[in-house]
């Protein structure tokens, strides 16, 4: 039954709308993993999509994204005993690790440069009008080009919001800014993109 | 089910209704979540079974195969839809993947590309069959299937083959792709950079090695899987509501095969060495263009190693018949040179080609843009 596992994992509450419901369960998962590293798999599965999507937005190709995602989980596993829920939400803590890992990687790999850090959107191949598909691809390509021209900090904000799926409050905790300032910067980013696409 | 964008991004959409912003948020969500995670579960399993790299180790350059939709093939998939409209699901597993890397425009007739091989090896109940190989001046592509032991259900397999030439030199793996399993078998393809070894119009003697494969087995229940064999190492099972649902495995297979890869003579090379300077004083040289059915590669010299305004100081783009070719990626070659690769099949296109190299990036109101460009009008014989 291809795809069933992925569908089941994606069915887990991941996004802000369910945060209140998910918070207790997540705290239990974190505590379980702190007690027994073998239980880390549940957190891994919970965050795999988001960490990978974020890693993909910070690397030039899929191979590097996989490697970065691997490093993020490995560092998280090693640091988990030191994590304290009072200091930051787990998602913010995890993506702070991801962000630092991406920065470290970038410093190490200065021999590899790519400007193409925005993943292509995959459109369904079948069951779609070909002309509509072409127009859609073109629109997404324009959006990718507009994102590429944003400054690095703004691209980072978009990656944390859309690829990592963090709320403004979690992003603020990740990057060390206030929630209000983070919201304002996100809003500015959207309007900059809107202006660029018009 | 995942919530719709207007619920997930309510914090971004809580101002006055703006259909453009709403659509933009939806598009950003599509864009940033389009990539599917690979089988890093198995990579983690390797860590937890004592074979992982340390966090301080150098990043692996080894290819990792992928399941599901893949960013690097997305543009090619789109081409497949536009050009062929082929029902990929009706085609053999390997051809579904293989055709994506051997010439996008010809994907509908991908079985005509490359050479059928059909080399099969089995170990530990797992069977790897190398079905098809393809070579041109830019790329070598190997298509293969993996089948698991009978009586067990797998959602995916990942081979991580390496390819070496007759002198033991390893070809860099660029990208790979795989299908989900169908009747216990997955189709896979790995793309290697052939620029350093390709013998255009000749044959390449290469050795493919796959010492291990990774697998994801569907399991149920709360007890550890009991089906593991001595050649299988278990990772941490994925769980849902206390029940195991998926078990990553690393299987020692020690597969190896000697291949003879015919390299197509279809290559168009333009040694240009054209130099231009932007109004801001940035000098760029377009050294070479190599067009094969699988890829178009530009070799450019300039300030490629200088990063400005959060990106490289120059960015080569390709415009063919007035249309910009998307999906390019650039890597450094050393000595101020960089290669830029475009996966689209432009081999039969003899129209008006331009290489537009964007230069002199600057930040204005946090918005990065290239403020200048040099344009080369070229002819590729």
How would you briefly describe this protein structure?
The complex is a heterodimer of chains A (198) and B (381). Chain A has helices spanning 4-10, 19-35, 40-57, 62-79, 90-108, 130-148, 152-163, 168-175, 179-197.
Structure, explained:
The complex is a heterodimer of chains A (198) and B (381). With 198 residues, chain A is an all-alpha fold. Helices cover 69% and strands 0% of the residues of chain A. Chain A has helices at 4-10, 19-35, 40-57, 62-79, 90-108, 130-148, 152-163, 168-175, 179-197. The model of chain A is unreliable at 1-23 and 110-129 (pLDDT under 50). In chain B, the strands form 5 sheets. In chain B, strands 4, 5, 8, 9, 10 and 11 form a 6-stranded antiparallel sheet that branches. Chain B is globular and about 70 Å long. The termini of chain B are far apart. Chains A and B meet through helix 1, helix 3, helix 4, helix 6 and helix 7 of A and helix 2, helix 3, helix 4, strand 6 and strand 10 of B.
The strand count of chain A comes to 0
What class do helices, strands and sheet pairing of chain A give?
A: mainly alpha
Distance between the ends of chain B:
53 Å
End-to-end separation of chain A in angstroms reads 44 Å
Hey, roughly how much beta strand do the residues of chain B contain?
35-45%
Approximate shape of chain A: globular
Q: Main β-sheet of chain A: number of strands, strand sense, barrel status?
A: none
Assembly state here?
heterodimer
């Amino acid at each position: 039954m291809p795809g069933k596992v992925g569908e089941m994992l994606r069915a887990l509450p991941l996004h802000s709308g369910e945060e209140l419901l998910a918070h207790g369960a997540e705290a239990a998962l974190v505590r379980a993993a702190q007690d027994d590293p073998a239980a880390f798999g549940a957190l891994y599965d919970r965050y795999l999509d988001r960490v990978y999507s974020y890693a993909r937005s910070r690397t030039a190709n899929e191979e590097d994204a996989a490697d970065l995602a691997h490093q993020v989980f490995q560092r998280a596993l090693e640091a988990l005993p030191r994590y304290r829920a009072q200091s930051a939400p787990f998602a913010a803590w995890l993506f702070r690790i991801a962000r630092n890992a991406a920065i470290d990687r970038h410093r190490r790999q200065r021999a590899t440069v790519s400007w193409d850090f925005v993943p292509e959107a995959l459109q369904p191949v079948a069951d779609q009008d070909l002309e509509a598909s072409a127009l859609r691809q073109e629109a997404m390509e324009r959006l990718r080009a507009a994102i590429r021209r944003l400054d690095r900090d703004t691209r980072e904000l978009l990656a944390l919001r859309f690829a990592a799926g963090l709320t403004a409050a979690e992003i603020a905790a990740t990057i060390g800014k206030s929630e209000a300032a983070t919201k304002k910067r996100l809003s500015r980013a959207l309007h900059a993109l809107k202006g660029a696409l018009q | 089910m995942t919530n719709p964008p207007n619920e997930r991004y309510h914090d971004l959409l809580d101002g006055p209704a703006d259909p453009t912003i709403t659509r933009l948020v939806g598009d950003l969500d599509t864009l940033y979540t389009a990539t599917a995670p690979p089988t890093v579960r198995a990579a983690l399993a390797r860590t937890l079974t004592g074979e992982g790299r340390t966090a301080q180790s150098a990043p692996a350059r080894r290819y990792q195969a992928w399941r599901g939709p893949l960013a690097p093939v997305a543009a090619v998939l789109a081409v497949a839809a536009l050009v062929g409209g082929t029902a990929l699901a009706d085609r053999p597993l390997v051809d579904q993947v293989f055709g994506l890397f051997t010439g996008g425009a010809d994907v509908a007739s991908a079985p005509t590309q490359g050479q059928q091989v059909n080399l099969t090896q089995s170990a530990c109940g797992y069977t790897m069959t190398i079905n098809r190989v393809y070579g041109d001046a830019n790329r070598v592509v190997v298509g293969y299937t993996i089948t698991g032991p009978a009586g067990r259900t797998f959602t995916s397999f990942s081979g991580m083959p390496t390819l070496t030439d007759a002198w033991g030199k390893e070809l860099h793996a660029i990208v790979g792709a795989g299908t989900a399993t169908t009747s216990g078998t997955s189709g896979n393809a790995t793309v290697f950079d052939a620029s350093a070894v390709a013998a255009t119009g000749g044959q390449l003697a290469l050795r493919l090695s796959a010492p291990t494969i990774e697998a994801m087995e569907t399991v149920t229940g709360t007890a550890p899987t009991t089906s593991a064999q001595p050649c299988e190492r278990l990772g941490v099972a994925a769980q849902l509501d206390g029940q195991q649902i998926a078990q990553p495995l690393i299987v020692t297979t020690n597969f190896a095969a000697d291949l003879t890869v015919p390299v197509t003579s279809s290559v168009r090379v333009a040694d240009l060495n054209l130099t231009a300077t932007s109004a801001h004083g940035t000098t760029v040289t377009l050294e070479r263009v190599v067009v094969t059915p699988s890829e178009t590669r530009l070799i450019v010299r300039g300030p490629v190693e200088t990063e400005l305004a959060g990106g490289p100081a120059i960015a080569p783009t390709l415009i063919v018949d007035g249309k910009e070719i998307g999906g390019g990626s650039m890597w450094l070659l050393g000595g101020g040179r960089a290669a830029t690769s475009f996966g689209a099949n432009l081999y039969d296109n003899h129209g008006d080609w331009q290489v537009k190299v964007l230069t002199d990036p600057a930040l204005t109101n946090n918005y990065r843009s290239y403020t200048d460009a040099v344009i080369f009008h070229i002819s590729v014989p």
